[in-house]
Amino acid sequence: MHIVVCIKQVPDSAQIRIHPVTNTIMRQGVPAIINPFDLFSLEEALRIKDKVGARVTVLTMGPPMAETSLRKALSLGADDAVLLTDRKFAGSDTLATSYALTSAIKKLSEEETVDLVFCGKQTVDGDTAQVGPGIATRLGFQQLTYITKIESIDQGAKEIVVHRRSEGGVQVLKTALPCMITMLEGTNTIRFGKMDDMFRAARYGLKTWNKDTTGAEETKVGLKGSPTVVSKVFVPKPRAQKATMVEAESPTAEAQAAAAVDAILGAQPKLADELLARAAAGL
Questions:
Q1: 3-class SS of residue 30
Q2: CA–CA separation, 75 and 263 (whole Å)
Q3: Most CB atoms within 10 A, among 51, 95, 168, 256?
């Protein structure tokens, strides 16, 4: 079994700052980490490896500095790593990113058929949750999103049974391999790397691929292949209005509620008129 885990190197969201003039993200001095949601998918792939002896390949698209995230994944137990980097990938939106990653996965399939693709539920910098499903659509794989548990994998029958969280509860789904899975956060505990894997990660010769290696079309990657346009990024202005203390005639709940309602209606006279009109109409 061959499993591909797609990860992304992102700025640590806890330390992101916005430039006060340009309103752009200030990445200088902000540490880069593996997207936290991707780690849960990586851990699940490694658990499958522990059970059935699968081969786990980690794939990322980004600048050369993304190598550190790949080596981190190798230190946790992944077998191989591929860095997809090319200046022509710069500015890719989710459509172009899913195309570039799909091209790399197809290239990996030439060496060994890919049975499972894992992606994080979403990234902390983009929050779109579109790349994983985009990859599945381009590959023609079944897509299993918001998965909380992998119940079983039958390699002989090429079937997988998973638990999926939905608004109404938990769905138990069975589908055929190959498929794409996105794991929910908190579904497992990410392991610590073993010393042997850490040494291997430090010595590992990363595979570095570009557009030409994967055969990706130039018009479908980077800005040329990205129909999404971000018109503006800004920080919401803080409200200048201060909080008002509402004093009630007595400490009872009824008096405090009445005082709060009077204060709200006093500040919003149109709301008071609307409520009176609705009451008169019997609504």
A1: coil
A2: 60
A3: 95
CA–CA separation, 58 vs 42, rounded Å? 8
From the candidate CATH numbers 3.30.70.20, 3.40.50.620, 3.40.50.11540, 3.40.50.2300, the one assigned to the domain spanning 2-220: 3.40.50.620
Strands 142-154 and 159-166: antiparallel
User: Helix (H, G, I), strand (E, B), or coil: what is residue 20?
Assistant: coil
| Helical spans, DSSP H, in 62-175 | 67-76, 94-111, 131-139
pTM: 0.80
Peptide bond into 133 cis (omega under 30): no
CB 107 within 8 A of CB 208: no
Close Cβ partners of 250 (under 8 Å, ≥ 6 residues apart): none
Q: Report the length, in residues, of the chain.
A: 283
- Residue with the two structure tokens 């509860």: 169
